[in-house]
Amino acid sequence: MKRIFILLIVCLLLTSCQGVSKEEEKTSIRIGISLYRGDDTFINNIRSIIEEKAKEYERESGIKVTLDIQEAKGSQNTQNNQVERFISLGCDVLCINPVDRTDTSLIIDKAMTAGVPVVFFNRQPVEEDMNRWDKLFYVGVDAKETAVLQGQMVVDLYRKQPEAVDLNEDGVVSYVMLEGETSHQDSLIRTEWSVQTLKDGRVSIERITGGIANWERSQASALMEQWLTEYPDTIELVISNNDDMALGAIDALERAQVTGVNVIGIDGTTPGLEAIENGKLLGTVSANKDLYCSAILELAASCALEKALPEEYPLTDETYFWTPQEIIITKIKENP
Ligand code: GAL
How far is the CA of 159 from the centre of ligand 1 (A)? Predict the structure, then answer.
């Protein structure tokens, strides 16, 4: 009899506890987002899509999502302060596009102490930092895959119409290379593997010159202007680590009234896609931005609500979401 009584009490206690946790289930979440810079075209594209995704999530789940978005203006110190502020404001989770991907330890320290999970994106922290806590995630693209796709688009065109790539038909494609920030994991890998893919695809190539333009259109435009003067009638192909620098090269080509040179980029930004539509940019490699941004949002929301991540977002090593990518090429060159 005594046993049955105790069992009854335990059952009652259990059901009442469940009732409390139901009532306490979160109906709103707050996400702190810090961008390495606010004037980067690709990052701005991502920002707008994350904002759309947050509204979509709110509509579908009935959970209110507050986004606090800050720009770090290229300063790691500013970003560290933003993280501190997000935590003091009670953010449930942080989405960080780090300024210096090799210097995220302070952000991680603060987040770990406060028990606030972090979803990093686009600028990949070093593995040693990522391994410090099981509440650290990363959303991005595989840099080698990007570069191989970029090289592949030229190899494919060369096989179909060699004269569309080897403009002077001397059997060698002479190219210049525009590189992004030296500290970014994407720059080195993109530079190396786009060229390697051309070689593997048996396109004879010759590097005329190259330079670092830090992802920026104006810096790339200045470099290209200089190269057009230094190497007149020589450049057949411009390989750019991103669309903005590719557009800078196109600006310089237009100013110098040089036509026919192929320019390839990466990102599939809005202005990049417009240039492809107009036949100015041969092509680009674009991550599925919809998926990229919903992965960031869903990961953040599932951390904030302490729920499992939906199955559509498989994580490598329970940490990394690698977004699929595709080639987008101008129809004008494909079907001359
Ligand atoms: C790269 C992108 C660049 C720039 C950079 C910022 O992945 O291709 O355009 O946005 O990230 O970290």
Answer: 30
